[in-house]
Design goal:
The complex is a heterodimer of chains A (161) and B (130). By secondary structure, chain A is of the alpha+beta class. In chain A, 36% of the residues lie in helices and 32% in strands. The longest helix of chain A is centred in the middle third of the chain and has 20 residues, at 88-107. Chain B is globular. The N and C termini of chain B lie close together (10 Å). The chains are: A alpha+beta (161), B alpha/beta (130). Chain A binds chain B through residues 24-25, 28-29, 75, 78-80, 89, 92-93, 95-96, 99-100, 102-104, 107, 113-114, 118-120, and chain B through 11-15, 17-18, 21, 59-61, 87-94, 108-112.
């Protein structure tokens, strides 16, 4: 029998799975709480975006985005180091956070866990850029508050079997 | 054993440091840590060095953790040395593949230091008991 996610679309698109995945990663790896917020991400001159692709039953990506302020705090909590700029270690740390978010999110949907692979994280820094996906199947997008900063996590699905 | 020699294989240097910190928090001291950024580098390290424990990621460029493990066992490198996979891939299928390839343990990312301790210390105790 061919496995299809379409019958369980409500599980795949359940926003609570994204929130619990983010909370789990931050609690376990950073020892810090974060919570969803209705606030928009504050604009900063420098932003960082990490992307981990999904392939298999679901194709798409998990995208983490924040300003430099949040990225430095998150990388500091994860590594126990202090950072004053987005260097290679900060990029590595944010890529790993995105990797764990993607893994935790797909692990929350039983059929996805075994039938959807993850790519190696890609990290983009700079300003005035955005990621465009044409006609996604669905998109989950939440902003989270963390230690007086904020970051956003987006799950974009552009193909579903 | 005077000191535990551990190989950590992960393409993320941040994750290698976090795993090392978790091992030290678990009480693995004194410990010498060897690092590799891919399966290929891991095999190179093992061709010239003795280790007592290996922790490896699965998703890595150039050679992933499962292929690293297969080649390690196939080439009889690090014979009898326990290997623990640390990975974001958490399905039963992935665990099964890792065990079939020769892993003795499996830790899902994200993880706590306590989970690392629970999975790793029994393997270390077995190594020390030999």
């Amino acid at each position: 029998m061919t496995l299809s996610l379409r019958e369980n679309l409500h599980l795949v698109t359940d926003p609570r799975n994204l929130d619990s995945s983010v909370e789990e990663v931050f609690n376990m790896m950073l020892g810090a709480a974060c919570r969803p917020t209705e606030l928009a991400l504050a604009e900063e001159p420098e932003t960082i975006t990490a992307v981990v692709g999904f392939g298999g039953l679901l194709s798409g990506a998990c995208v983490f985005r924040s300003g430099a302020t949040a990225a430095l705090v998150i990388a500091g909590k994860l590594t126990g180091m202090e950072f004053s700029e987005i260097d290679d270690t900060v990029k590595d740390a944010i890529g790993e956070v995105c990797n764990m978010l993607a893994g935790a999110w797909k692990g929350g949907v039983p059929d996805l866990s075994a039938n959807c692979g993850l790519s190696i994280p890609a990290v983009i820094t700079g300003s005035n850029y955005h990621i465009h996906v044409q006609a996604p199947e669905f998109r989950l997008h939440h902003v989270y508050e963390f230690e007086d900063t904020a970051f956003e996590v987006t799950i974009i699905c552009d193909g579903l079997q | 054993m005077s000191e535990m020699r551990v190989l950590i294989v992960d393409d993320s240097s941040v994750m290698r440091k976090i795993v090392e910190r978790s091992l030290r928090q678990a009480g693995l001291e004194p410990m010498v840590v060897l690092e590799a950024g891919s399966g290929v580098e891991g095999l190179q390290v093992l061709s010239g060095q003795t280790v007592h424990l290996i922790l490896s990621d699965i998703n890595m460029p150039s050679m992933d953790g499962l292929e690293f493990l297969r080649q390690l066992r196939g080439q009889n490198l690090a014979e009898g040395v326990p290997v623990v996979m640390i990975t974001t891939e958490s399905s039963e299928e992935h665990v099964k593949q890792a065990i079939l390839a020769g892993a003795q343990g499996y830790i899902r990312k994200p993880f706590t230091a306590e989970q690392v301790k629970e999975r790793v210390l029994p393997l270390v105790a077995a190594v020390e008991g030999r």
